[in-house]
Amino acid sequence: MKKYLIIFIFIIGCSSNAPEDLISEEKMESIIFDIMILNASSGYDLKIDNDMISDELIFRKYDIDSAQFYNSELYYSRNPKIHFNIYSNVKRRIQKSIDSIKSIK
To answer: What's the whole-number mean pLDDT along residues 3-19?
Structure first.
């Protein structure tokens, strides 16, 4: 039993370490915001740049790759306060965009 507890503690300790190529919280917020906007427009034919679509465009825009994004998202998801703040800021930005569109009337 002690052996399993030590292994479990080791895994938790290692998993909470930040990856070397961690994306900053601010950049992560912008990336997630752009991904959500692009996903919301998925009903439209948006073949851009030789049929490249979806997250690939965003990864290119922010000069990252999918592994870096995945590792950063995994790290932040293991840190709930930071993860919550990132997504709260994304939600706030989306609401601000909606409000600015509504005010165009």
So the answer is: 59
